[in-house]
Amino acid sequence: MSDQAPSIADAQFEGTGYSYTMSLIRGKYKMAILYCLMEFQPVRFNEMRRYLGRITDKTLSANLKELEADGLIARQEYPQIPPKVEYSLTELGESLMEVLDQLCTWGETHMSGSVVAP
Amino acid sequence: MSDQAPSIADAQFEGTGYSYTMSLIRGKYKMAILYCLMEFQPVRFNEMRRYLGRITDKTLSANLKELEADGLIARQEYPQIPPKVEYSLTELGESLMEVLDQLCTWGETHMSGSVVAP
DNA sequence: CGGCATCCGTGACGATACTG
DNA sequence: CAGTATCGTCACGGATGCCG
Hints:
The structure is a homodimer of 118-residue chains.
Chain A: H1 17-25, H2 30-40, E1 43-44, H3 45-51, H4 57-69, E2 73-78, E3 84-89, H5 91-110
Antiparallel strand pairs in A: 1-3, 2-3
Chain A binds a DNA duplex (20 and 20 nucleotides) through helix 4.
């Protein structure tokens, strides 16, 4: 039931797919990490840190854990010296990137107000 | 430097369309505001505040100003007593919503599998 | 190399009161 | 009704140091 036109009076943002998706990619670096993986996976910890610019170990580490917990990325650890860990996108992560990639396209199209020369 | 495949060594996230798009919708409520407008525009200030749940006047006001400055939403003020202001999406805002709407769809599809019990 | 522990700064956001 | 002003809080992220 209740399949009538939604009214703003009782509508809610919480609980929408929107809200859920945003919770996954919130944060200064979440999307950058995913973007990095999409283009260069598998990627090692320090590779990614360099790519992201000024991110700190702590922040990167925390973000990677969250993304892993959310099922978007996979962590592959090689028990050796020196340690080696590679990150990559899961199937879920890849499916999300297909959508997020369009955000990139949109941004490139519309940031023209401030075209940044290469 | 030829036009070979990009290497992670000198790639950068800053400056991508991605980065630009995210800068527009960052924040706890930015997307919720846009989403609200997409479904119910034009929307008045207090209507939106109720829709967004626990947002304060200050935060809502600040976010609306930013979105307006970014050209995503339009503000229509009616000089009368009591005051009346309506917000709606600009063409640019609408074009962004077409993309963001897919985030919603993705979220609805994938949040069912990993519902986190409260 | 790939982390974790700790301390700390900042800015987004909340609560409340007030104004045109 | 549609904000503005002021204050307080807290998560996010930065800097540094240590460890397997």
